[in-house]
Amino acid sequence: MLARLAAIPNLQVLEDVPLSRYSRFAIGGPARVLADASTETALIAALVELRGCPHALIGGGSNLIADDAGFPGAVLRYVESGIEIDSSMVRVRAGTVLQDLVNTTVAAGLKGLETMTGIPGWVGGAIYGNAGAYGRSIHELVESVRFFDGEQVREIGNAECEFRYRESVFKRRKDWIVLECSLKLAPGDATELGATADGILKIRNEKYPPTMRCAGSIFKNLILAELSESVRAQVPERVIREGKVPSAYFLEVAGAKGIVNGGIRVADYHANLIYNSDGGTSRQVREVIEMLKQRVEDRFGLRLEEEVQYLGG
């Protein structure tokens, strides 16, 4: 397998690479093979070659918890980046860093992505998980997505992507690999958009310092209308935002702040922030996540759902 992958043009192949280097948590044992595809053709060729073999595709690793034992097969990354702007339409490759896309559109006077400044990761992952912040999600801007379905390259419109809060068809169909997307943005004033982005970035960096080894928020927020009547009755109106209840509210009531398990901690100032303080392990992260889920379930009768994705284990 290794020799066949190495023979694919524009595919950089490495052996026994610690996944901790590719996760914001800085956690994870070695992948048997790590392969970076710098073109769409290389990515598809690698996926075809790996049929029937253990493999996984990751992006920027911002929402990734890699197992302490690593991954026994091949881990692929699609690293091709590129942004094309035609009036209000933006076409962007999945391997583009999301912050680069935000900066480029803000500078071009295009409105819509400025509230997503500071969100780590790549565009493919943002589409996959329908990333967003401050009441906005990327699906609101998506016109179409090109992807590889395991057999051929296809392009579908927004409705077919089946976007929901932090969800998409690509998250459910992991064999559908995002290659590129088209976004439609609105005209705006570059100076005003830049000021908005700068203000948001300052707030985000105070909450999630760039050097902190974490995945941002661990759990999805809850949609108020989907909660049971008994749970809704326990939620103060002051914590409801855009029809959602922050999972941090339930976690704080359940006593999550400051919990420590080895090198893994829950922040003292934010109950939905778990970080690797020093030498934390995947096992410790999973134990803390399960502990928090159980505490909230015992207190409120609801089960929180992670935003993070697991690799291996």
Features:
single chain, alpha+beta, Uridine Diphospho-n-acetylenolpyruvylglucosamine Reductase, domain 1, Uridine Diphospho-n-acetylenolpyruvylglucosamine Reductase, domain 3, Uridine Diphospho-n-acetylenolpyruvylglucosamine Reductase, domain 2, 313 residues
What distance separates the N and C termini?
22 Å
Low-pLDDT segments, ≥5 res = none
| Rg over CA atoms | 20 Å
Mean pLDDT: 96
Spatial order of the strands in the main sheet?
6-7-13-11-12
Q: Provide a count of the helices.
A: 9
- The CATH architecture of the largest domain can be given as 2-Layer Sandwich
General form: globular
By secondary-structure content and strand pairing, the structural class works out as alpha+beta
Beta-strand percent range:
25-35%
What is the count of β-strands?
21
- CATH class call of the largest domain: Alpha Beta
Compressed to H and E, one letter per element, the order equals HEEHEEEEEHEHEEEEHEEHEEHEHEEEHE
Q: Which topology of the largest domain does CATH recognise?
A: Uridine Diphospho-n-acetylenolpyruvylglucosamine Reductase, domain 3
